[in-house]
Amino acid sequence: MIRCLKAFAFVTLFLIAAGHASAEERWLTLPEPAAMPKPEQSGYAPVNGIEMYYAVFGAGDPVLLIHGGLGHADIWASQVATLSKTHKVIVADSRGHGRSTRTDQPFGYDLMASDYLALLDYLKIDKTALVGWSDGGIIGIDIALHHPERLTRLYAQAANVTTDGLDAGVMTNKTFGAYIVRSGKDYARLSRTPGEYDAFVAQISHMWETQPAWTREQLGKITTPTAIVAGDHDEAIKRTHTDYMASVIPGAKEIILPNASHFAMLQAPDEYSQSVLDFIDAK
């Protein structure tokens, strides 16, 4: 996986140097996140042997935002600014990501889901809506499968439920490559172990090689009201896989975000936030 990430970076830098990064469609861009608003509460929660960074904004019915692999909570800045006007918004850095620490324990979606459930316990939040992007969406599906009593609604964007849902073309996609480069810089800036990015990537890559692996029968038992969401130009997840997920999760709503990719929350922040609100606040 590390070799692939370095290949991503090489392809990205080559294309930028060749002048292919200008005047592109929105779905080909990777905007910088907005500045994160000032939280009402932030800190580190002791969960499952790690210190998990979190921040809380606003008041109202809670909504938990979970970022994707190699990312961090600040990616959600635009959504936090909008959603916190009417909701209590919780963000966090997943184990090993951003400001959160990690252990030698193997990464797994069950473990990461238990981290977020422990964070909700720490914050005394019994039940929440959950918005998850990529790995965050997979974590949300894990919680819906095993702890549906903790969720009111699930908005899962750019998630997959089996490893064959991944598009092999992502390996040479320049937008995804730019994200890998940015993630390495963000890790060096935010992490307590800034020199361990390769070790962290190697550790989480073991999870990506085999997980998730849920069956149609398992997904058919989900009872949480669920939206399966994708940008219409997602680089990483096959559209047929998104369609499959929406078809096998009972009552799932499929939402396709126009002119957006895997990074829709950065490319179309206002549209993304409104889509979330329309779903989590629906009666």
TrEMBL record:
Gene Ontology molecular function: any one: serine hydrolase activity
UniProt KW keywords: Hydrolase, Signal
Record bears the keyword Signal: yes
The UniProt record lists the keyword Signal: yes
UniProt-listed Gene3D superfamilies: alpha/beta hydrolase
Organism domain of life: Bacteria
Name of protein: Alpha/beta hydrolase
Species of origin: Mesorhizobium helmanticense
